[in-house]
Amino acid sequence: xxxxxxxxxxxxxLIDYLDKDLINSVPAKHSRLFRKAPETEGFYKTLYLDxxxxxxxxxxxxxxPGGKIxxxxxxxxxxxxxxxxxxxDVKVGKKLEDSFEEFFQFVLDKExxxxxxxxxxxxxxxxxxxxxxxxxxxxxxMELKVxxxxxxxxxxxxxxxxxxxxxxxxxxxxxxxxxxxxxVASNNIGENNCIYVYWYDLPCIKGIFWMPSTQVYRHQKSxxxxxxxxxDGDRNKQGGVRGAVNKIYLPLHEMNDFYSILSVIKAKM
Length: 269
Fold this sequence. Notes:
It is a single chain. The chain has helices at residues 4-16, 20-25, 40-56, 67-79, 86-111, 154-157, 175-185, 213-222, 259-268, and strands spanning 115-119, 130-134, 137-147, 169-172, 194-201, 206-212, 226-227, 246-250, 256-257. It is of the alpha+beta class. The protein has one domain. The radius of gyration is 18 Å and the shape is globular.
């Protein structure tokens, strides 16, 4: 079951205990990254909770709020160079994943005693990132994405109904996703046992959200993927493009809140 109050509290716990050196090492970070601001709870309500109801009524996501926070965010992200060192980006991403794993085990100990989280992609890089176990039995796989750079011009470049706060939940579309889908659909995992988790920290909306793999793959099938601009950091020494540049964008208002992950785990224990 969803519990928005505890979902928000647990996210606050996660960012409160992040290593400060790790935060400082994040490339191209905005000034509100991993920080609670006075407006944070209000944005969680207006940009997430209220939009779930709007979506259920058949309406598109509301326009971004505007105001000083939006102007500052747009000016920063449109002016900041995107020539990011891929190797360094991967190192920071690994540290953020480690922080999430430690945090999630803390939550499991409180809410789902006996359940554990471990890396699931060490033997096969196409596996989802994490595996939840109970009594040594595998019960859930989790693919984690950390997103803190909004696609400011998404409504102009990808889809007119998209907004930067609601559709910057990026997913690489290509061989890796297709390979992972094959693994998830196999008897070893099963689509009903895998979720995609988003650690989402924009200047406005912040939280941990998730979507079942079955729903993610429906979006993969129905969306026209967007090919982002290739920048210097995308190329290897031979000049070839490394990593995925084709993207799909999952909607925030179709995401579940963090606490409901625990309800799913409890039901499988």
